[in-house]
Structures are given as structure tokens and as C-alpha cells.
């Protein structure tokens, strides 16, 4: 996803959902493992290679992982960032997924959007250094891949545009913004919004040799009980070709994915595009092609993200479903979902990696299974029997570095010694 980079940002929405979501629903001696690449990663059917994905998310929204607080100063921020990169190497990881546009802002000198307030405490204030440029250079110097992580439509954790810096695009274009669930979002149904979001992302791709562009699970916002996302005017203007608003919304997200992929390929050939969706596309009770789960959220229906299509049609280079449940979880079993995603990727060129809930390991608020430091290691053992699975990504960097329960040390000892 306390997970402010993903689920906790939408806490008000998730509080209204079934208990499923609350229970699972961000240099060693031998150095870092070889980074996974498009040609070297499992391609929807081949065996996972020696360079399989061993990644971690490094979340910046609400200072979840980094920087530890806003306004620390450039030298301390840089030191903290490098310590996380060193921790990745020490844990024998090979990839860092660095959140650089958490809330319609930037962790690099963007001509499109303001500097993030998570750096200095003041949106738009220059932090005095270039975090993304530094992260790319320092990750590569350590043999790590650096994936730049962008949130397309999230604008703010409040609904007051006047709190945004005066030059913010959302203030200059108030018709682009929808308040919903106590937060502000760009409206995915506006073509001009989609073009702007893509331009903001592509600026970073053109500036820096990032190894991949990464989206997480946020597209249309998670549902909030008793509220509706007000895109009526956009639907009236742009939805004539669709029989339902849901179909139009899914097409809006499809366009974002396809256009972003094409623009990445044109701007920097070889840079990949990956997405880490919420782990349930649809329940089988809703769609026979879905998983044998009872998810309170289904990405197809609730976030208007047809993640299965993106894999099957090979629109993206890799998918990292967030399978943040334990083996045997009654409503969403990790084993069931890992097999479903392997079946989905089979026969495609879309690489499959699995997102792992390291943050749950040892947390007394979680189910009994998460109190066992061996739970995550069993996840990797189970996935090793699925040839489509080409590696794993751990949420998130703070837990990778501290490993309070010893769960990651167990994973490294059991699976990352070669």
C-alpha cells in the first residue's frame, strides 16, 4: 500500500470495502544480482532466468519511505536515498522502483509540474538537487536498474485547489479536476488531461536513461461508499461511441496505457513499461475468466482498468500484480492468484513479476500467517513452480532496509544466494 503510497492514500475508500482489503487487499559480498531485462525476463512462458526480477518499491508519497521528512536539506536527503540503494544491493536485489510523480508533482526539474512538497515541505520549492537524476546515476553505478514510478491522475490528498501552488496546472485548468472522497484527481475522461499527463511523464523519460516507466494500481480512484465520481460533462462530450459510462471509462484508461507505451518506445527505445495493478482483475463469480476469489474490489469494474487485456494484448512489457495476501487466505488466496496471473501471461510476451507484501510480515495487526517469517519465502517457493513468474518486487524500501521480522533475510537465504 501504514501504506500511504497505495492503499492508505485511499483509506477513506477502503474503509467501506469488505474485510478482504483490510487483510491483504508501497552490498552483499557478491553484489547485486544481474538486473532483469526485457529479453532476459520471463516472457509469458519461458523459465525465469538467472537475472530474474528482485525489486523493491521506494515510495515518496506522504514521505512513506523517502525522504524521511520534508525539508531535511539536500545533503541529508541524498544520503538517505543512497542508503536505500545500498540496502537493495545488500539484500541482493537488482531493481528499484522509485516514485517520482506521486501527486501531480515532480522529483526532477519538470517544466510541466511543480517540485514535490514531500521534498521541501513547500510545493514548487527547488530542493537544490535532482533526486531522479541522482537516483538513476547512483543505481546504475551499483548495478541496479532504476524504474521511474508515476501516478497518472492523483493530484492532492485534499479537495482545496487553492492549497496548490499558484502555477499548478490543476489551478490553471480547474475544469480538469474532480474532487472525490476527500481528494483531488485529474479527470481521465478529458483528452487534454491524458495528453498533459503523458507529456509530464515523457519529460522524465527523455531526460534520463531510466530502465522502465512504472504505474501502480491507481487509475480511476478506489470507490467510496455513497459518492460518485463527477465526470458527467466529460462523458456527455466524449462518450457518444460507448454504450455505458463504464465502457467509456475503461477506454480512457486503455488509451492512456497504449499511448504511453508508444511514446516511451519512440522517445527511448529499450526503456520498458510496466504496471503493478491491484491483484484481482475480476472474480470468477462476475466473469468466468476471472479468479476464484471474492475480492471487494475488481480492477475491471471498480478502477476501470482492464489489466488482463493489457497483458494478453502485450500493450505493456511487464505486469507486477500486487498479491498482498497470504497463502490460504479465504477470499483471496496468494496461491490461487499466482496461478491465475501465470495463466494470464502464458503465451504472451508480457513478463510477469509478483508484488509481495513485505510490509505485512511481522505486523501484529495482520493475520497469523504473517507472523511467520517464512510466509514470504513460501510465496517464492510456490511461484518457482510457475514458469511464467519471472521474479518478485517487495513493498517497500523501508521494510527492505529494516526487515524487522527477518522475513526478507529468510527470502534471501532461501532464494537469493546464487
TrEMBL record:
It holds the Pfam family GHL10. Gene3D superfamilies: Glycosidases (3.20.20.80). It comes from the Bacteria. The keyword Signal applies. Residues 53-367 form the Glycosyl hydrolase-like domain. InterPro entries: Divisome_Glycosyl_Hydrolase, GH, GHL10, TAT_signal. Keywords: Signal. Residues 1-27 form the signal peptide. The keyword Signal applies. PANTHER family: GLYCOSYL HYDROLASE DIGH (PTHR43405:SF1). This is Family 10 glycosylhydrolase.
